[in-house]
Amino acid sequence: MPDEQPAAFRLAYVPGATPAKWARIWADRHPSIPLILDALEVAQTAAAIGTATADMALTRLPDALAHGDPGPHHTITLYEETTVVVLPKDHVLTAGDELAPTDLDDENLLWPLDEPLLVDDRPGTAVDHRPATTADAIELVAAGVGVLLVPQSLARLHHRRDLVYRPVTGMPTSTVGLLWAQPTSALADEFVGIVRGRKPGSSRGSAEAAPKRSAKEKAAAKRAARQAAGQTPGKPKGNRPRRSR
């Protein structure tokens, strides 16, 4: 008997990540296999892979692996995110277009427990209270309790009119990538292909691509195309010039 088709493919994703484009492509290519999107915190994604509650995770690496054991796994890096500091709109540091870590030496820094950004050498002074989530930390920045370092996508996600953010050079960046279990399933490979921009049918493990045509076959195809367009091979379009008498 042929293998039973999976009922769905489950993709976990973290705040700030945007899988919508890839989800649309998946729906076009696999209408009979729903792509289920599950929003998780970074700290939850490794466990989701390890317990098979998600087939793949769009997460921050290696941050996710610092919070749990996914078991035997694969990862690929997709892109790096700029680190920014979130500040009250009237903060003195908003005068600069970008900041250095030393600019934060006199600041109180909030470090939420969901740890959207791992920083070993933390600038400034850590606020004793650690908010549970990045969203909670944003509220405390607005209240003037401290400032917050996050990947830029999270600053955009939690945008408020009373807050702004500035890039901080020389800080660790956030790596966004895919995490999934070994061995690779056909559907996981298909999703990787979508993310990497492979055309339908070109993913690894799919049918072989059609062989390249020879020069003679290409020439024959061009003749057929000209004939289909009403052209005769070797003759230009339009009226032939009259012969002088």
TrEMBL record:
The keyword Transcription applies. GO terms for molecular function: DNA binding; DNA-binding transcription factor activity. Residues 23-196 form the LysR substrate-binding domain. Residues 197-245 are annotated as: Disordered. It comes from the Bacteria. The keyword Glycoprotein does not apply. GO terms for cellular component: protein-DNA complex. Keywords: Activator, DNA-binding, Transcription, Transcription regulation. Residues 210-220 have a biased composition (Basic and acidic residues). InterPro entries: LysR_subst-bd. PANTHER family: HCA OPERON TRANSCRIPTIONAL ACTIVATOR HCAR, TRANSCRIPTIONAL DUAL REGULATOR HCAR-RELATED. Belongs to the LysR transcriptional regulatory family. This is Putative transcriptional regulator, LysR family protein. The lineage of its organism: Bacteria, Bacillati, Actinomycetota, Actinomycetes, Mycobacteriales.
